Amino acid sequence: MQTLNEKSDRIDQKLEAHIEENRRQFDQNTLEHRQIAQDLRQNAQEHRLMMQMIKELNEEQNKLKQAK
């Protein structure tokens, strides 16, 4: 009976270690996900600004062509 309890305790310890490692990895993945999401939002904002600048440059170029 003692051996069975010892085996059960070792299994419980291994299980707890795996659970703790999974929690740690989950927390790390959550942080990475938040950073990536923030980077994507920033990239989208920069993209919109660049597209606006291109539009304005095209409009200015068209005005210059018409003035010739």
What would you say this structure looks like, in words?
With 68 residues, the chain is mainly α. It has one domain. Helices cover 97% and strands 0% of the residues. It is built from one helix and no strands. The radius of gyration is 29 Å and the shape is rod-shaped.
Summarize it.
The protein has 68 residues and is mainly alpha-helical. Helix content is 97%, strand content 0%.
Q: β content, as a range? A: under 5%
Q: Can you summarize the main beta sheet?
A: none
- End-to-end separation: 99 Å
Radius of gyration: 29 Å
Q: Unreliable segments (pLDDT under 50, ≥5 consecutive)?
A: none
SSE order, as H and E?
A: H
Number of helices: 1
Tally of individual domains: 1
Per DSSP E runs of 2 or more residues, the count of β-strands stands at 0
